[in-house]
Amino acid sequence: MGRQTEALEISEEILRRGLEKLARPAQPDIPWDVPLYLAWACRFLGRQPEAYRYLRQYLTHRTLLHLPLGLHNPILDVFKNDREFNTILTDLKQRLEVARGAIREFEASSTQGS
Fold first, then answer.
1. Residue 42: how many other CB atoms lie within 10 Å
2. Domain map of the chain by residue range?
3. Contact at 8 Å (CB) between 19 and 42?
4. Structural contact between residues 112 and 106, judged by C-beta atoms closer than 8 angstroms
5. What crossing angle do the helices spanning 48-60 and 83-113 adopt, rounded to 10°?
6. How far apart are CA 6 and CA 105, in angstroms?
7. pLDDT score, position 65
8. What does pLDDT average to over the chain?
């Protein structure tokens, strides 16, 4: 929308503040989604290796189920054309299918016992 300079400035600010939060000793005020926002800012700024490091850090302890709107979250748009992101999505889908299978198995065994 013609606001590239402003978007770059905001991305730099997100990166600066996010890194400051992560640099402090563990504190309860550090939001769990800081690595996700760092990933977005780094990717927007063309710093892909860092972006994917933070995205993987975020996903290590969470899944896209924790992300508001899941795969439809606009924060992920910056990643959608990347091969690496598609690899991550494939892995997440496989992990989700394993979890779904375990749930189906549990439900089936629960209904047989009743």
1. 23
2. 4-113
3. no
4. no
5. 10
6. 51
7. 67
8. 83
